[in-house]
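User: I'm putting together notes for a lab meeting next week and I want to include a structural view of one of the chains we've been expressing. I don't have a solved structure, so I'd like a prediction I can at least talk through. The sequence is below, exactly as it appears in our construct file.
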Amino acid sequence: MLTALTVRDIVLIESSALEFAPGLNVLTGETGAGKSILLDALGLAAGGRAGARAGVRPGATQGSAIAVFDPEKKHPARALLRESAMEADGEIILRRVISADGRTRAFVNDEPVGVALLRDLGAALVEVHGQADDRGLFDNATHRRLLDAFGNHEALAQDVAERFAKLETARAEAEELRRAAAAAQADAEYTRHAADELTALGAEEGEEAAITAARSLLMNATKIAEDVSAASAALSGERGAEAGLASALKRLSRMNEEARKAAAAAETALEQAYALTEDARRELDSLLASLKLNPRELEKKEERLYALRDAARKYNVQPDALPRLQAEFEAKRESLETGGSKVKAAEASVEQARETYLAAARKLSAARKKAASDLDAAVATELTPLKLAHAKFRVALDPLESEAANGLERVAFEVATVEGATFGSLAKIASGGELARFSLALKVALSEASPPAALVFDEVDRGVGGAVADAVGERLQRLAKTTQVLLVTHSPQVAARAARHFRITRLDDKTRVHMLTDDERLEELARMLSGANVTEEARAAARRLIAEATPKRKKRA
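Assistant: Thanks for the context. Below is the predicted structure for the 557-residue chain, given as structure tokens.
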């Protein structure tokens, strides 16, 4: 609910702070006192447009409007805050600051926000119905949601939306397969040729580098063999290292025992060197044997290298990319062979998803048809007491040209205010006091269908009196049992039913707000009944109105 409204320097209001109660809150006062300014300020705080009706007070540099709400924990407004990564617990404070040049700033819980978020939060928290306001019930975009809430089939509507999403996914997948199959078919001959060619080539990643290295080795085999032979000769020839080491070891072996003991370490080192020299010579001989030039081997390496590079140039890729390209063409060739069956399978999935969606959508349509009939009847019972006996209301269910996430039909609330007239939108046909009373009738009928945190009516009883005004008051009081209601009224029959009563006065071109005590409330109702000169008869009539409007308590047994 709306707990408080603070207004500073807006039009005629210098500073006003209102604390609201649950149930019916009434604002009364003389015409021109500024009652509607307060509602316009509330609309400004809730994301409405700034303008002449909600502008800065003359002489002030800026104005502000602050609305404090305390909705239930599961209220949609809290979900909006969480989606925006904002604190969603506790009170929700909407603040709008407007400068003299018309620029505005928006805040939620003292955090600066965009006007779009403020407007969305405001729409979720408060709904305004007045002489010039066609939002809320008069916004066609809300009618489907309200009908679904009224019929208590929101879960079915959610199921339809989920099934439609699956249908759209299936359609997208089928379309992608059709495009792929069509593209593959267009280049079928080329695809098959490339796949065959690359498969026959059988290129491997890194193969080009390996062949290049092997080819270089083979091409330089003669020169390498000469160098290896020379190295081997330096080890094993008559004057080679191997012969020298053997000679040294032979001389040491001929020394006497004492000399050999002294040269033992040297002898051991020579033996190790000799063994290593033998190993080196054998390795060189082995390398020399492998370097014997095989012209056919070199030819084979060159042919393979040229084949890899030719294929790379042909397909405009690097040689190492040939294996991946081969896999791609093989996949395309497979698609050519299996694409048709995949498309058929996908199309079958689409049809299955569509049938599943249609089954749920038709069930929803049937539920909406029944709910529409029930709502038509519920609204009809409210129209006659509100002096709208000639008006007709209906919920129009118009088939859509194609399936949609919201179902198979467009939902619109329509009315005809003159006998025999054609039905049309609420905002276009209903006007003035009729507009507000229509909104009241609808809200009473839809009282259980996701009510906002607060409802605001601006002179819903304008132009009516007597029994009609009493009927308006009775319905407002009934509505206020489930939803907080704020009301600007000139009707004492309606004002007498208030849970909290505010009097709006204008003094020295400034609007002032005062919450009335019980005695003050009696005087205000008497004033509304008799005019400037309050009589005892008016006071007595006011007492009767309050007594009649006060709910009777059941006596204890």
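A couple of points you could mention at the meeting. The first strand starts at residue 2 and ends at 10. The chain has two domains: 2-151+417-516, 189-333.

User: Perfect, that's what I needed.
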